[in-house]
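User:
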Amino acid sequence: MPYETVIGLEIHLELQTRSKLFCGCSTTFGNEPNTNCCPVCLGLPGSLPVFNRRAIELAVTAALTLNSKVEGTSRFDRKNYFYPDLPKAYQISQYDHPLAKGGYLELEVDGQTRTIRLERVHLEEEAGKLVHSGESILASDYSLVDYNRAGIPLLEIVTEPNIYSGREARLFLENLRLLLLYSGVSDCKMEEGSLRCDANISLRPPGTKELGTKTEVKNMNSFRAVEQALNYEAQRQEAILASGGKIIQVTCHWDEESKKTTPLRGKEGSSDYRYFPDPDLLPLVLDKSFIDNLAASLPEGPLKRKERFCNQYGLSAGEALIFIENRELGDFFEAAAALYGDSDNLARWVQGDLLFQLRQSNVDIKAIRSELLVELLQMLDSGEINRPVAKEVLAEMVHSGTAPADLVREKDLGRIAAKEQLLPLVEQVAADNPEAVEKLRAGEEKVLAFLVGKVMGLTGGRADPAAVNRFFRELINK
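Assistant: Predicted structure:
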C-alpha cells in the first residue's frame, strides 16, 4: 500500500547581533570555550534578563520577510527540561503568545509553484553546545559543554505539515536561507550552527487528512543531509507499516556516515516542558509604528533582484541566478556595472575568469575592488593588452590587489607596436616561410593571416596585428 509523506520543519536561526538576547555577552563565534558567559546567561541566582532591542528588530524583520503577522503583544515563557547544555534547566522561549503567526514562502518544484505555509515565528534563547569525544554522540565516551552559545538570540520558524518529500524540504530550506540572507537577519552558516533544522515526519494513506504518528529527526547538518535523512526515515516508516507494525513517536539521530536514522529517545510533548510565563520578563509590546517602520525598510528580496538584474542589465535568467545565489558577487557586479557599460562582457568576466581566480586563490570577493576589474577590461577594449595578457594580469591582481596598469607596466606586458621591435620578427618569419611570402607577392591575401599569426606566436600574442600587417606589406613591396 502506498503512503504519502508529510513533513513539518522547525528551523532555528541565530540572529546577527553583537550581544546575547538578555545580557551583554559577545556572540562572536570561535572564542575559547566558556569565555562568553556571565551570571545572566548561566542562570546564576539573583541575575535578571534584559531585552536586546536589536534582536527584536531582526526578529520582526524576519517575520515580515516571511509574510507573517507580527503580534502587537507577545510573551516569554520558561520551557523546562534538563539537559547538560542548558545551564538554567529551562529555556526562555515563547509558547502560546509567539512574536508572529502564519506566513508563507513560495518556491518552484518541478515547474510548479508551491506555497509552504508557516505556523509561527518566535524568539527564544540559544542553548549551549556539547562537544563529543567521538565522531558522534553515539560513538562518544563523554561530552564536554561549552556555554558560549547559551543565550544567543534564536529565531524559531515552524512550518505547517505541508511538505511532502525530502527534496521539497531541501528546496524550501535553500530558498529560506537565501531570503533570510537578503533580509540581513543572520549569516545562515550551517557549518557554524547559526542555521539548523529539525523535522517531524509521518506517513498516511493518500487522500486522508489525519496525520500518522510522527517521528522527529535531528542532527542534519546540511541541506543535502536533510533530504537524505527524510527520504530514509520515510522508507523506514513505510517498511514498518507494510509489515503490520506501528510507528512509535521517537526522536531519531541522523548518522551521516551510515546514512541511517537511529531512534534515541521518546519524543516529548508540549506538556512535558511545563511551560509557564517567565516571572522576570514583562510581555513584549510592539507599537504599530515600530512594526510599520521595519516593514517600510525591508531590503530588496532575491526574486525582485533577479527580475531587476534581467531587466536592468539584460542578463539571462541563468546569469542573474548566479548573482542572486552569491550576493557578494552580485554586489561586485553592480558596482562594476556603474563604471563599465558592457554588462554582457562584464558578466562573462565576473562569472567566468574572476570567479575561477577567486576560487583558485581562496580570496573573498570583498577583498577585490570593482574598479580594478573595470580598469582591466577598459585596457583590453582599447587594445592596450590582449586577452591572454588580461587573464595573466587578472590572476596577479586577485592575488596581490595591484592595479592592472601597474602590473602591465612592471611586467612589460603591453601591446608591442614599435617598428624596432616588430620588424626583426617580421623579417625572421619571412625568411623561415619563403613560399608563403611569394604567394603573398602573387596576390594570395589569405597567407597574410598565416604570417601575422607566426609573429603573434613569437610575441605571446602581444604584437599589434595592424602594425605587423603593415610591416609585411612594406617588406614584399621592396
